Amino acid sequence: MYTLVLIIHLIVCAFLIFIVLIQSSKGAEMGAAFGGSNQTLFGSRGAATVLTKLTTASAILFMLTSLSLAVISFKRGSVMSSVPKQTSANPLAGAGANQGPMKAVPAAPEQGNAAKEPAKPAEPVK
Length: 126
Hints:
Oligomer: single chain
Helix content: 40-55%
Shape: rod-shaped
Radius of gyration: 35 Å
Largest sheet: none
Number of helices: 3
């Protein structure tokens, strides 16, 4: 479904660009209005031609396909949801952990056997 709407959207995009480019230019009505011309500000607006109607229809179709693609993409989920999550508790573990500005800090050396033996409970006072 997504691919079909995407293909229709691309065809409508190309058609809309083509229709806009083949329309005849209205000239420099905006510039002429400030020069004292007796035309209206944006040029005279005659009856809607076939090209104008095609432009309007293709613009509406473009907006509908854009909205449809957004809704379908939202329902499909994120692209990042397929990326596997990191299973290590240490985010610096793995390939390249000692590269870049954040380097792994080595563990402190052990102090004799005291660090390996568990602490003995205190003897009761008599």
